[in-house]
Design goal:
By secondary structure, this protein is of the alpha/beta class. The chain has one domain (39-191): Glutaredoxin (3-Layer(aba) Sandwich), CATH 3.40.30. The protein has five helices and seven strands; from the N terminus they run αβββαβαβαββα. It has helices at 2-17, 86-103, 120-130, 143-148, 176-191, and strands at 57-59, 65-67, 75-81, 109-116, 136-139, 157-161, 167-172. The radius of gyration is 20 Å and the shape is globular. 26% of the residues are buried.
């Protein structure tokens, strides 16, 4: 009987402490247990429209560096991507043609692709095959991705950030209507 009760107590402890891969915090021993789940919004985003975009600095494949906070005052589009993402590979030429090419010389616009968990060589190879020319940053451990969306959630994702550093639009996957709205939102922000 004693072993049975001990087994039940251990099971309850394991179940109550398991976090299923989420970033929970647990109070110190002796305190009451407080678990904080991240707030998850539509499409498994951890940010929402109106939030200040989480800052980060990442290396670029061209040898430079991209820092989001250094872009304040500009319209910024972040495109989360990876070579293994078929939807990303389908979307990237559209981003190149409809967003990057018309705006690449506009000093008030910044676009950066953020590759998730791949090497520079892999990124350079698939970007060359796709024919895209916009800058690519390396998020080699997906920490930047995880500051915007649940780490285990999928890509492609686009985050549009206004001149004030606040998120204006979030997209997920590559859907014509949503992509057209993204293009229109960029044009509108740049016209202001």
């Amino acid at each position: 009987m004693k072993n049975f009760l001990l087994l039940i107590a251990i099971s309850v402890l394991i179940i109550s402490c398991g976090n299923g891969g989420k970033n929970n915090t647990v109070a110190a021993a002796g305190d009451s247990v407080a678990v904080q789940q991240p707030t998850v919004y539509e499409h498994e985003y951890l940010v929402k429209v109106g939030d200040v975009a989480p800052d980060f600095t990442l290396p670029l494949t061209n040898g430079g560096e991209f820092s989001l906070s250094a872009q304040r005052g500009k319209v910024v589009m972040l495109q989360f991507t990876a070579s293994w993402c078929g939807i990303c590979r389908r979307e990237m030429p559209h981003i190149e043609q409809r967003i990057w090419q018309p705006n690449k010389n506009n000093p008030d616009f910044v676009l950066v692709g953020i590759d998730r968990e791949e090497t520079k060589e892999v990124v350079d190879d698939y970007v060359a095959k796709l024919g895209t020319t916009y800058p690519m940053a390396l998020d080699t451990v997906a920490d930047v991705f995880a500051s915007y969306a649940l780490r285990e959630s999928g890509i492609t994702r686009n985050v549009l950030i206004g001149r004030d550093g606040r998120i204006v639009k979030l997209t997920r996957r590559f859907v014509d209507e949503e992509f057209n709205d993204l293009v229109a939102a960029i044009d509108s922000l740049l016209a202001k």
